[in-house]
From TrEMBL:
<dbReference type="Pfam" id="PF00209">
    <property type="entry name" value="SNF"/>
</dbReference>
<keyword id="KW-0472">Membrane</keyword>
<feature type="transmembrane region" description="Helical">
    <location>
        <begin position="288"/>
        <end position="309"/>
    </location>
</feature>
<feature type="transmembrane region" description="Helical">
    <location>
        <begin position="70"/>
        <end position="92"/>
    </location>
</feature>
<feature type="transmembrane region" description="Helical">
    <location>
        <begin position="330"/>
        <end position="349"/>
    </location>
</feature>
<protein>
    <recommendedName>
        <fullName>Transporter</fullName>
    </recommendedName>
</protein>
<feature type="transmembrane region" description="Helical">
    <location>
        <begin position="361"/>
        <end position="384"/>
    </location>
</feature>
<feature type="transmembrane region" description="Helical">
    <location>
        <begin position="454"/>
        <end position="476"/>
    </location>
</feature>
<feature type="binding site">
    <location>
        <position position="47"/>
    </location>
    <ligand>
        <name>Na(+)</name>
    </ligand>
</feature>
<dbReference type="InterPro" id="IPR037272">
    <property type="entry name" value="SNS_sf"/>
</dbReference>
<feature type="binding site">
    <location>
        <position position="50"/>
    </location>
    <ligand>
        <name>Na(+)</name>
    </ligand>
</feature>
<keyword id="KW-0769">Symport</keyword>
<dbReference type="GO" id="GO:0046872">
    <property type="term" value="F:metal ion binding"/>
</dbReference>
<dbReference type="GO" id="GO:0035725">
    <property type="term" value="P:sodium ion transmembrane transport"/>
</dbReference>
<feature type="transmembrane region" description="Helical">
    <location>
        <begin position="193"/>
        <end position="211"/>
    </location>
</feature>
<dbReference type="GO" id="GO:0015175">
    <property type="term" value="F:neutral L-amino acid transmembrane transporter activity"/>
</dbReference>
<feature type="binding site">
    <location>
        <position position="259"/>
    </location>
    <ligand>
        <name>Na(+)</name>
    </ligand>
</feature>
């Protein structure tokens, strides 16, 4: 169906032929970094796809949007949008053997913004994702105590009773909002840097740098632990839970606690650091279970960060931000230091509010725009028939009818409809956030507050710039090409004028 392909001049010159691919494969076999085996590659993919969000974000979203009913549209969109997009990204990246910027600029120079937008989203997600890793490290370090510090309220300064804020809420709430975050009552009040969280924050970035500094030579080994240990720990938790007495009653009671917490406004991060930690305190030998739980969270987060940070490093190299002479370690170190410094905003007293803001707007609208442009770019600019031939070249057969229908029609249409409705809904809403305020009348229920006016600038940066990088880059490329063409025409015109006047002597 060539009618589905828009004219795209010089495409064949920008992409390697099959013969060139085979030649490159043979020439770079010994020099190019590669996985030791298929298991490493698969574990890396699993680790990137399954992360902390599956523990602290997805259950919260599921419960707050209808519970079990939420799973019906989720599974439908997973099949009709998520999986086709994942397959398309893997296939086109493998075919062109480039990073995100290189792939889309090869398909069409005007699509370079897709790679830049993807890099921006990876950067924003990495900033706050590694902060959650710092929180996990803090809880992990404090799990090596005979009595978990969040299992009971501390005594007040006068030694006359318990701390009032803890007594009015709960030990897990108090430990999370006061001892860990030392959170402020609103986002306008920064509260300053919390030194204990700064140490954990720096440690998290340092550990990530150590793992990625040598590329897949290091991360390929690390995924054996980071991608498998979480499932082993979950299996241990499952077996332990099923072997407890009165397991059905216990399951119902935890369900009730979860509903209660969510109805009181516990956010996604609170689900992991309040609800789950509360459950751990009820277990025998609770420090052991706490250590296992936070090891699991750390492994989930670290394996996801491998993919996120690579989504920043590779495009930066493709765009020529770093000198070509710089080694991988220098590029990774510079990027990690920059991210660590910017990420200090999340370890202030108001850091939790900033993290929720980044999570709500940094990875929502931009991803819809980028995913839609990716699908349309491959199907209509690169050409779906050429893409089918590429897949046949790589795996021996063309994609079946399901992939053809989703790539050509269903997935782009779904993404467009979701974007329109999401945009309309968000524009009509008044942005709100949940604040921990001991002075609130309904304390310990989180207080609903409107974001200050200046926060709209931040929202635009988070949600607007990554998505707008696609059309803005295309406009820039178009204008540059027109200017260069005019300059070339002027030079050639002057040359012909000089020649015609007889001023050029050979």
């Amino acid at each position: 169906m060539r009618c589905l392909q828009v004219s795209n001049q010089d495409l064949e010159e920008r992409i390697p032929s099959y013969e060139e691919l085979e030649k490159l494969e043979n020439e770079e076999a010994g020099d190019r970094p590669k996985w030791d085996n298929k298991a490493q590659y698969m574990l890396t993919i699993v680790g990137f796809c399954v992360g902390l969000g599956n523990v602290w974000r997805f259950p919260y979203l599921c419960q707050s949007h209808g519970g079990g009913a939420f799973m019906i549209p989720f599974l439908i969109l997973l099949v009709l949008e998520g999986v086709p997009l994942l397959h398309l990204e893997f296939a086109i990246g493998q075919r062109l053997r480039k990073g995100s910027v290189g792939v889309w600029s090869a398909i069409h120079p005007y699509l370079t913004g897709i790679g830049i937008g993807s890099m921006c989203v990876s950067f924003l997600v990495s900033l706050y994702y590694n902060t959650i890793m710092a929180w996990v490290m803090w809880y992990f370090f404090n799990s090596f105590q005979e009595t978990l510090p969040w299992s009971q309220c501390p005594v007040n300064a006068n030694m006359t009773g318990l701390v009032s804020e803890c007594e009015r809420s709960s030990p897990v709430d108090y430990y999370w909002y006061r001892e860990t975050l030392n959170t402020t009552p609103d986002i306008d009040n920064t509260g300053g840097l919390q030194w204990w969280m700064v140490l954990c924050h720096v440690s998290a970035w340092a550990l990530l740098f150590i793992c990625i500094s040598r590329g897949i030579e290091t991360t390929g080994k690390a995924v054996y632990i980071t991608s498998t240990l979480p499932y082993a720990v979950l299996t241990i938790f499952l077996i332990r839970g099923l072997t407890l007495k009165e397991v059905i009653q216990g399951l119902n009671l935890k369900t009730c606690d979860l509903n209660s917490f969510l109805s009181e406004g516990v956010e996604g991060t609170g689900l992991a650091f309040i609800v789950f930690t509360e459950a751990i305190t009820k277990m025998p030998v609770s420090p052991v279970w706490s250590v296992l739980f936070f090891i699991m969270l750390f492994c989930l987060g670290l394996s996801s960060m491998f993919g996120n940070i690579e989504g920043v490093l590779v495009p930066l190299q493709d765009l020529g931000v770093f000198p070509k002479s710089w080694p991988k370690e220098a590029i990774a170190g510079t990027t990690c230091v920059l991210c660590c410094l910017v990420g200090l905003i999340f370890v202030q007293g108001s850091g939790n509010y900033w993290l929720s803001l980044f999570d709500s707007y940094g990875g929502s609208i931009p991803l819809l725009i980028i995913a839609f442009c990716e699908m349309v770019g491959v199907v209509y600019l690169y050409g779906i028939d050429r893409f089918n031939d590429d897949i046949e070249f790589m795996i021996g057969h063309k994609p079946n009818l399901f992939w053809q229908i989703t790539w050509r029609f269903v997935s782009p249409a779904i993404m467009f409809v979701i974007f329109v409705f999401y945009f309309i809904t968000k524009v009509q809403e008044t942005p709100m956030y949940k604040a921990w305020n001991p002075e609130s009348e309904n304390f310990p229920t989180l207080e609903e507050k409107e974001y200050p006016t200046w926060i709209f600038v931040i929202i635009f940066i988070l949600a607007g710039i990554p998505g707008l990088s696609v059309p803005l880059t295309a406009i820039y490329k178009c204008l540059r090409n027109r200017c260069c063409k005019k300059d070339n025409d002027t030079v050639l015109g002057d040359y012909h004028s000089v020649c015609s006047s007889g001023l050029v002597i050979v």
